[in-house]
Amino acid sequence: MARLVLDLALTTVAGKYFQLTREQPSSKEFYDRAKAHELWPASAELVQLTPDESIFSDAASCRPHHMPAHG
């Protein structure tokens, strides 16, 4: 775990999942746009997120900037 914090080669790595020290693909649920669309409004409300703080580039797509198209 310390490698993920201390390794300079990983300083620009963001939005990735690791199991111990190995990068792993995200779960199938991560790519489920319908679930993301359903979950996002409640999540944004819980943390009092303003519209300009949204990670979604397009509210209609409900896909974060960093989330790749899948499937």
N-to-C terminal Cα separation, in Å?
Answer: 31 Å
Number of strands: 2
**Beta-strand percentage range:** 5-15%
Query: Could you give the order of strands across the largest sheet?
Result: 1-2
Shape: extended
Amount of helix: 25-40%
Count of domains: 1
The biggest beta sheet is recorded as: 2 strands, antiparallel
Low-confidence stretches: none
Order of helices and strands: HEEH
The count of helical stretches stands at 2
Pairing-aware structural class of the strands and helices?
Answer: alpha+beta
Rg = 15 Å
Question: What is the mean pLDDT?
Answer: 77
Description of the molecule:
It contains two helices and two strands; from the N terminus they run αββα. A two-stranded antiparallel sheet has the order 1-2. The longest helix has 14 residues, at 33-46. With 71 residues, the chain is of the alpha+beta class. It has one domain. 27% of the residues lie in helices and 8% in strands.
Question: Secondary-structure map with pairings?
Answer:
Blueprint: H1 2-6, E1 17-19, E2 22-24, H2 33-46
Antiparallel strand pairs: 1-2
Give structural attributes.
about 70 residues; alpha+beta; 2 helices; two-stranded antiparallel ribbon
Summarize the model shown.
This protein is an alpha+beta fold and 71 residues long. The chain has helices at residues 2-6, 33-46; strands at 17-19, 22-24.
